[in-house]
Structures are given as structure tokens and as C-alpha cells.
Design goal:
With 137 residues, this protein is mostly helical. Helices cover 57% and strands 3% of the residues. It has a domain at 39-115. The protein has helices spanning 11-22, 29-33, 40-60, 66-80, 90-96, 101-114, 121-124; strands at 3-4, 7-8. A hairpin with a 2-residue loop joins strand 1 (3-4) and strand 2 (7-8). Helix 3 (40-60) packs across helix 4 (66-80). The longest helix has 21 residues, at 40-60.
Length: 137
């Protein structure tokens, strides 16, 4: 048992200390957004726009159909634009959340170059086809 100041510590106190260290911090969206310059509904909307942009980039990066290629071209243009006239411009959203736009661009480009060709995890857990036994259908 661990002791503090020469006095023996109880096992229950040790368990409480361990649980306190291992307890995750839980934040509500309002608590997360309050740390940034933009909070409330506007912050949630800006975060949703950023998340959608990143998701569209990843989803359509390997698109072969014309609509998918156009979606990728549109989101790539939004991500690479330095235009700040719209409150929902990529660089304005990054500034609101104190995220480096260059960092996001660099990581998306690295993902596109390396990770987009890896098969999805679902494909690794394929169910084998059923075998038909002789004499049975």
C-alpha cells in the first residue's frame, strides 16, 4: 500500500485516486466552443461547415463520376481560397477556432497522397461465402 507522510493509506483511497486520474473530461459543445472567439449557434454552424468540408474532401477525393469530381473540385477550391469576404470562408473559420489553415491543408494533402488508397476497415472483415455441402442445397 502507498503511504503519505508515514501514515498508511487505505485501499479505498488509492482506488479513488486512480479513478480520478482515469476519469475522462467530458465537455458539452457549448463548453468546447466557449474557449474560442465564436460560441453559440454561430460557432456550432461554423464547426459544422468545417467538418462537412473535410468530410467532403475525403469522400470525393477518389471520385470517378462527374458529380463527385465536381464536389471535390468545389471543396478543394474552398479549402485553398484566401478569400475572406464570407464569414464561412475556410480561413475565417480556422481563425475563429484558432486552427492554422496551412496545417489543415497540409494534413489533407498528406492524407490524399498516402491514405486514400488504403482499403476501408470494413473490407478487412469480410464474411466468407457460405459453403454448400455435397448432397445439400
Amino acid at each position: 500500500m502507498r503511504s503519505t507522510g508515514g501514515a498508511p493509506a487505505s485501499a479505498a483511497a488509492d482506488a479513488d485516486d486512480d479513478r480520478a486520474v482515469l476519469t475522462p473530461d467530458i465537455l458539452l459543445p457549448e463548453q468546447f466552443l466557449s474557449a474560442f472567439r465564436v460560441a453559440g449557434p454561430e460557432g456550432r454552424l461554423m464547426l459544422a461547415v468545417l467538418k462537412d468540408g473535410v468530410n467532403c474532401y475525403r469522400k470525393y477525393a477518389s471520385a470517378h463520376d462527374p458529380a463527385g469530381r465536381q464536389m471535390f473540385a468545389d471543396v478543394r477550391e474552398w479549402l485553398n481560397s484566401a478569400d475572406r469576404t464570407s464569414p464561412f470562408a475556410f480561413e475565417n473559420i480556422c481563425d475563429a477556432f484558432e486552427i492554422s489553415p496551412a496545417w489543415v491543408r497540409r494534413h489533407l494533402l498528406a492524407w490524399r497522397r498516402h491514405d486514400r488508397h488504403t482499403p476501408p476497415r470494413r473490407a478487412a472483415i469480410a464474411v466468407p461465402p457460405c459453403r454448400v455441402r455435397a448432397g445439400r442445397r
